[in-house]
Amino acid sequence: MYYKIHLLLLIVILSACTTDESYTLSIPKNGFEVVQHVSKNNKDKREKNTLYKTPREIKKEELNTAPLTLFIDSLYAVMQRYEGVGIAANQIGKSLQIFIIEAMSDNPRYKILGAVPKQVFINPIITKVSRKKKNFWHGCLSAQDKPRGNVASFEWIEYECFDQEGVRQKGRLEGFSAVVFQHEYRHLMKGTYIDYANHFLPKHVLDQKIKSGELPFFDDAHDSLPLLIEGYQLNTALTDY
Ligand SMILES: [Zn+2]
To answer: Which of 66, 71, 119, 174 is the most exposed, fewest CB within 10 Å of its CB?
Structure first.
């Protein structure tokens, strides 16, 4: 009997000690790789994937420290390696409330949409949104070989967060910056555009249709278009999703 109790106790202690690496700031030996989307039908696989785990807040004592700076630099390096315009921590296997956005206007893909200055968002919340919405065809580093999907996002948003130096920031984003912000925000709300869009097109077909004017590009969104950050309640932390 005592033996059994001791064994049970040992198991409890051992399981409490094994921490989920995805909640730490540690950098894997072989560097980071981009985590790929898993379909809703594959529940078991999805539960283990950081794209669908609740990301934790960065603690006050972690702000502006060397480990956090190293992590953010590593996240940025992955974004640059894959030529993304934004990246969220859970896309590289870390359940942390951090994302980065940046698009250069000299990149022909983003010339028309305008530049997105580099910004790091830590523990971001959205405080206000526009009434108007915009339509945009999304692609994603976590949706390799997947078609583009059309979803609506708010024309502008206002946010509060901490920046890389640990300073509290408030701001407003509009245009392409607001689209990329909401795309990354969706990731930290657990999910990708693939879970929300109901109209998909391969990239080469989409490019052709936009070029010929057959499809609208960055126009006002129709009310029937699914909203990218569907379900978000203003002023709530990402741990609530
Ligand atoms: Zn993405």
So the answer is: 66
The answer to whether the CB of 214 falls within 8 A of the CB of 114 is no
Q: Is 161 annotated as a binding residue?
A: no
Whole-structure pTM value = 0.91
Ligand 1 centroid, distance to 140 Cα (angstroms): 4
74 and 95 Cβ atoms separated by less than 8 Å:
no
The answer to whether the beta carbons of residues 153 and 179 sit under 8 Å apart is yes
Look up the CATH number of the domain holding residue 68: 3.90.45.10
Is 19 inside a domain boundary?
no
Q: How confident is the model at residue 112 (pLDDT cuts 50, 70, 90)?
A: confident
Res. 63 pLDDT band, cuts 50 70 90: very high
- Domain assignment present for residue 44? The answer is yes
Structure-token pair, residue 57: 């807040």
Residue 166 domain-assigned (yes or no) = yes
Please provide the average confidence, as pLDDT, over all residues in the chain: 91
Tokens of 200: 């998909």
